[in-house]
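In keeping with the milestone schedule agreed at the kick-off meeting, the structural modelling team has produced records for the first pair of proteins. Each record is given below as a sequence line and a structure-token line. The laboratory manager (R.T.) confirmed that both were archived under the project's standard naming scheme.
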Amino acid sequence: MELWKLFTTALMPVLKVLIITGLGTFLALHRFNILRESARKHLNALVYFVFTPALICSILAKTITFKSLAMVWFMPLNILLTFIIGTALGWLCLKITKAAPDMQGLVLGCCAAGNQGNMPLIIIPAVCKESGSPFGAVNVCNTKGMSYASLSMAISNIYIWTFVYQIIRVYSCRNFNVNKVDSPTVGPVSAIEADLENHSSTPEVTAPQTNDLVTPFKTDTVSKEKQITKPLRTLVKRLNLKILLAPPTLGSFVGLIIGVVPPFKKMFVGDDAPFRVVEDSASMLGDACIPAMTLLVGANLLNGLKRSGLKPSVLVGIIVVRYIALPIFGVFIVKGAIRYGIIHQDPLYHFILLLQYALPPAISISTITQLFGAGETECSIVMLVTNVCASFTLTLWSTFFMWLVL
């Protein structure tokens, strides 16, 4: 492809994100006040509980098969490496920039989690549809690309809502005392924390002291039960299993099961499927996920422009981590995997693996900060600046990645 065509292909998806973000800011202005604070919280809950699970489930059910899943086994490891390396670089960024304590969870989250969801889903079809695409016929490229991108989105959502969620949760609890949040619109945070708090504060049941002969036996039984159940309760609290069963994670599991198991796929996917209306409904709901999340980023930006405690050095550190350091690590990791025959020979697959290291921070981080009410305005500033930078860096890296895999 010519350089100008490649530049246009990479620039268009980022511009779409910026336009929708600007619309979200516009709708949150006091003159219109459509996306007011209460509306943002309710919309955020819809994204978390409905739109995101529906989007992941519908795409995976349609595009993933057992054969394709076996061929892309390296992708979960590759995405995990982006999270681990990003977190390590984010920790280094915190040490260098000396970010405020209430910003540390946000910085680590933005460095760890890339926008593996809507960005590849927009970029890959645009690359495939360009005339003279380096990845072959449009239909073949689009089918394979959407399969890779949807799997990338599902895996990253599992990591985000387990790994990154816990990072931001820990720092939010430390600085904002989220156990005291009483707003019903906060959603999963208030429910989980309240449940753990009530569980830990519930008094232990003691045996009724009916007589002196029975009491020692019952007391001894209760003490043994405490010894057995106390480690289990502690383990459950530390693992926070409710987060592992978060709606986006459950949507990923359901979509993978339907896609991989042929009888289920025949039941839900296809023009002749008896329950195709279920998959069609999930697909319709999922279509609202990406614009809703992007509008929320723009709406939160309005408050961020008015009052933000984000240091410029922290913002520069996030940009350096996401757009310079991580892509360099990605080139060495993916090229090493190609050289030693760890991954199969598919230039489009290689391109997506490399692209996973050069994406802007995940928009889901904005959803998480909204859920906790911690650093949401600063998160909007990060999203705006990093997406503006992505219009240039993503174009340059995409050009280099295509040259590298072809």
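The second protein of the pair:
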Amino acid sequence: MFSPKIVAILDKWLARTLVLLMSLMVLNVTWQVMSRYIFQNPSAFTDELSRYMLIWLGMLGAAYVAGQNKHLAIDILPQSLKGKQKIYLQVIINFFILVFAIAVMIGGGANLVYITFVLEQKSATLQLPLALIYSMIPFSGLLVVYYQLAQITSSLHTLKKRT
């Protein structure tokens, strides 16, 4: 279930999605600048679209860096440890990230999606359901959970080999 092949496929898919989102966002913002300053007729939807694309980019990017184990961290303690102690610490760190993703990203994000869905909130200009926009939060949380479980499984497998 947490095979390196599946993780590699997920990594590739996420990386390509992030590149696509960033490219579309650059085009969107470029059009906004051109329409405002060159054509003197600002486009109404581009500001809102870039805001929502930034939310999606940030959430998917957070999941991607968590999967790559490149997230922001204070690494003084892990650098000073060696062997089994370092692996145990990594498992503990991954566990806390897992708990955060489940509680905040999945739990809180699903609650946000539910509330905006029930209230039928829509974006001001694009008239998109906000539940659709915010659904990226629990989805990214699921990706983080998968990555953390894969890393914990890998670390425990490494520990088992050493004993």
